[in-house]
Amino acid sequence: MIAAAALQEDVDAVGISILSGAHNTLCPRIIDLMRANGMDDTLILVGGIVPQEDIPKLKELGVSEIFLPGTSTEDIVRFINTNVRKG
Question: In CATH, which of 2.60.40.290, 3.40.50.280, 3.30.565.10, 3.40.50.720 is domain 2-83?
Fold first, then answer.
């Protein structure tokens, strides 16, 4: 549903907040569905509880950035404004 909604709304970024520890299961599936629908330049942001050892693999899969607990809203907004496609 996340990938379908993102495609329908033609979004520039998708933010996923995961507190359950299911990031290694959910993120690859969401990324695969988005890429299969041509959403290669859509930012994929993950927030929540993600162990440091999982971050490199998630970024390798296509997660644009991971925001851990305590990240300021200003830092998140700055990242989006800097990295979202222009046009």
Answer: 3.40.50.280
